[in-house]
Design brief:
54% helix, 0% strand, mainly alpha
Length: 68
């Protein structure tokens, strides 16, 4: 899933490790999210969005998500 995490993180001059610590995950999780190799849980997506004072939809691109 595409996201704006890297863009938002860099705009705040945060490292991946700093973002990971702020939302309670590993740096590897942030790397995987930024490289579209991992889809965030709802709780993690909420924490990331809240950290940047945005809505989840403003951070993550749901346009390619298939409905079951």
């Amino acid at each position: 899933m595409k996201s704006r995490i890297a863009e938002l993180r860099k705009s705040k001059k945060m490292s991946q490790a700093e973002l990971a610590e702020a939302v309670g995950v590993t740096r590897q999780t942030i790397t995987s999210l930024e490289n579209e190799k991992y889809v965030a849980s709802l709780v993690l997506a909420y924490k990331i969005a809240k950290l940047f004072n945005l809505q989840i939809e403003d951070v993550f691109d749901f346009s390619e998500v298939e409905e079951n």
